[in-house]
Specification:
Shape of chain A: globular
Number of strands of chain B: 4
Distance between the termini of chain B: 22 Å
Number of strands of chain A: 5
Oligomer: heterodimer
Helix content of chain A: 25-40%
Strand content of chain A: 25-35%
Order of helices and strands of chain A: HEEHEHEE
Radius of gyration of chain B: 23 Å
Number of helices of chain B: 18
Number of domains of chain B: 3
Largest sheet of chain B: 4 strands, mixed
Largest sheet of chain A: 5 strands, antiparallel
Chain lengths: 104, 367
């Protein structure tokens, strides 16, 4: 059952952007810079790290969509009343820098 | 059982237990110590951004989840160390670890997930049967790794490797060597060979005849990667090396050792003291032929260096020594010196044992 669940997880990963539980370490490498603003006040990198319990800046060795997923889930649950703006600047595998914004 | 026998049975360095193969028990114990050494206990917190939102219910009762799973992790791990119901404890340990990962997306790491899988499947493996579940698991790890790579164009044009080694790691070896090749060629060669090796591993793990070769390919692949990058991917490298213990078919009977020289009573006594699993038996008679060492495994006899290599290969103390040495180096040094010592020791071990790859293999039954 446990092995079958992992095979299903591998198959499901073909249809969703996140890469949890599907053995995808180091399949992409992204430099991320997360910026969070609450009621107009900019959080420091340390505060952002404490908020998501995840790195706010640096190299991310798993799918960048994992990071977006963590931020989205936090902001739609624990932080839903915080009036937050999140902006992530990222560059995957050395490509041109892109920007991701949290959809409220 | 007499008190002395009970003490021997539950001694952490004894690996001859009723319901688990010694190499699999050794793997579980080493993985547990590895997790503790990397401070995993302190990572166990109440659910936070969980995969299953029901876990958030625990937030109304602070510390319940944290204390429960810290206790479960410690209790099952320590019980495993002391050979108390190792299969059941391994299942509890693996399940706890899995639930801890499910309770926090921020905590998810592949090097933790692989430990959870190894514990769980080790506990589900019967001592008298081949541990196929663990082989399937390892095959799935490599198959998943290659499947997630082949769908990405950056793995075909070398962009991932180039960015990782040049921009992220600033790897001077790669930068200098890639200058010799036409643009991106070295990155492409490394990308394609990684995918090919991972795919081959995932297939050949499922072929029992190829296990010995696959184990060598895995260790060489990861050690070359470690040597090139001086990076262990969390503790994924250690996890994989420890899990490779499943490839050793532990001999079922006692291994008899004969030597050319008369063994002094002190050496004999010391040897028997450290022979915790009572796996080895020192023969009294000295060898009459030219060999300086002979070991008899079931009905096969091997001699000299080959015998010495097999003696180490089947000695649980040897793995524990290497494991503790690795941890000691990690705690004593850091940066270049730590990696240099680790990599040098690893290659010394590989060079010492590699003749086994080309020598005559000894077929044995599962314990």
């Amino acid at each position: 059952m446990f092995i079958i669940a992992q095979i299903i997880s591998l198959a499901v990963a073909r249809y969703i952007p996140e890469r949890f539980f599907c053995w995808a370490p180091y399949d992409e490498h992204t430099y991320i810079n997360v910026n969070v603003e609450i009621n107009g006040k900019q959080l420091t990198k340390k505060e952002i790290k404490n908020r998501y319990r995840y790195k706010a800046e640096g190299w991310e060795p798993r799918s960048i969509n994992n990071v977006f997923n963590i931020i989205e889930q936090y902001e739609s649950t624990y932080g839903r009343n915080d009036n937050t703006n999140v902006l992530v600047k990222y560059s995957t595998n050395g490509h041109k820098e892109r920007t991701w914004r949290l959809k409220q | 059982m007499e008190i002395k026998t009970i003490k021997q049975y539950y001694f952490p360095l004894n690996f001859s237990v009723a319901d688990m193969q010694p190499n699999i028990l050794l793997m579980c114990k080493l993985l547990f110590i590895l997790l503790c050494a990397h401070g995993f206990l302190s990572y166990i917190e109440d659910p936070y951004i969980p995969f299953i939102k029901t876990f958030d219910l625990f937030l109304s009762y602070p510390n319940i989840f944290k204390i429960t799973f810290k206790t479960l992790f410690l209790f099952s791990g320590l019980s495993l160390l002391f050979n108390f119901k190792p299969r059941a404890m391994s299942i509890i340990l693996g399940s706890s670890l899995f639930i801890i990962l499910l309770a926090s997306k921020s905590l998810f790491r592949n090097h933790l997930f692989i430990c959870a899988c190894a514990f769980l499947l080790a506990g589900l493996s019967n001592k008298n049967e081949f541990p196929w579940l663990l082989y399937f698991q390892l095959s799935l790890v490599y198959f998943g790794a290659v499947l997630n790579k082949v769908v990405q164009i950056d793995w075909w044009n070398g962009q991932f490797i180039y960015n990782w080694l040049v921009n992220a790691r600033e790897n001077q070896l790669f930068i200098k060597v890639s200058d010799v090749f036409p643009e991106m060629w070295l990155a492409k060669i490394l990308s394609w060979s990684s995918m090919l090796i991972e795919f081959s591993i995932s297939i050949f793990i499922l072929v029992k005849k190829r296990h010995f070769l696959v184990a060598w390919v895995i260790i060489l692949f990861h050690t070359i990667l470690y040597t090139m990058t001086a990076f262990r991917f969390g503790h994924f490298y250690e996890d994989i090396v420890i899990i490779l213990l499943i490839f050793i078919n532990w001999p079922s009977g006692i291994i008899q050792i004969s030597s050319k020289n008369v063994i002094s009573p002190f050496v004999r006594k010391s040897f028997n003291f450290f022979n915790f699993s009572k796996k080895f038996h020192l023969i009294n008679n000295v060898l009459s032929n030219k060999n300086w060492l002979e070991i008899k495994i079931e009905d096969k006899t091997v001699s000299n260096w080959h015998a010495f290599r097999l003696f180490l290969l089947y000695s649980t103390n040897f793995y524990i020594f290497l494991f503790l040495l690795d941890l000691l180096v990690r705690f004593m040094f850091n940066g270049f010196l730590m990696n240099f010592i680790h990599i040098s020791l690893t290659w010394l071990c590989i060079l010492f044992f590699i003749p086994l790859l080309f020598g005559k293999k000894i077929k044995k039954n599962v314990v």
